[in-house]
Each structure stands twice: as structure tokens, then as C-alpha cells.
Design brief:
With 107 residues, the chain is an alpha+beta fold. The chain has one domain: Alpha-Beta Plaits, CATH 3.30.70. 28% of the residues lie in helices and 37% in strands. A hairpin with a 2-residue loop joins β3 and β4. The protein is globular, with a radius of gyration of 15 Å.
């Protein structure tokens, strides 16, 4: 069966170093569970680093992992959610990092 694995990296802090409201993370997790039946989450925050205009930035994120059927509607769902999660009302981020890959599960 053709499947996708999505990895969603949700920030724990806003760009001005304020904590992200844990309710926002729970809401995002609940949306994924309601749509796909479940997900996995990291227990320990992951550190991310990047440079922009010569300035080094550090971020702390949690990673949610979802495995689901490979459909165009799944891709569209995550595209829509990415835009929503980036909005000022949610995580207020220039980019919420979401990756996906095709999977084959051993039988």
C-alpha cells in the first residue's frame, strides 16, 4: 500500500522568545489525530539552528510524525494546515517546517 510519512516541527517559542501557548500544540495534535487517527510526538524538544543574513538563530521544536495513505487530499490537508499554523493567530511563524516522504511498509 502506498503511504506517506509527514514530519511536522512545531515551535515551542515565538520569535520574540515568548513561550508558545501549550494549547496551540495540543490543538494542532488533536487536528492531526482527528484527521488521520493518530500521530507520534517527541518527548524531548529538538534544537534547530539556521543562519539568516549572517545571524545564527536557534529554535526549539517538537516533532509530530504521521503515517497515512498516499493521496492528493492528504497533501492538500497538510498544505492548508501549514498556512493556518504559520498565521499570527496560531504559531506566528514565517515557516512551519513540514516534510514528507513516500513509504513502503514491510509485510
Amino acid at each position: 500500500m502506498d503511504r506517506y510519512r509527514f514530519e511536522i516541527f512545531l515551535p515551542l517559542f515565538h520569535n520574540d522568545f515568548r513561550d508558545v501557548d501549550p494549547i496551540k500544540i495540543k490543538q494542532a495534535t488533536d487536528e492531526i489525530v482527528n484527521e488521520f487517527g493518530g500521530c507520534r510526538a517527541t518527548e524531548i524538544p529538538l534544537a534547530g539552528f539556521w543562519k539568516d543574513a549572517g545571524v545564527l538563530y536557534k529554535d526549539e521544536v517538537i516533532q509530530l510524525t504521521v503515517e497515512t495513505k498516499k493521496t492528493e487530499s492528504t497533501l492538500n490537508w497538510f498544505r492548508d494546515k501549514k498556512e493556518f499554523w504559520e498565521s499570527p493567530e496560531q504559531f506566528n511563524q514565517a515557516v512551519i517546517y513540514i516534510t514528507y516522504q513516500e513509504l513502503e511498509v514491510l509485510s
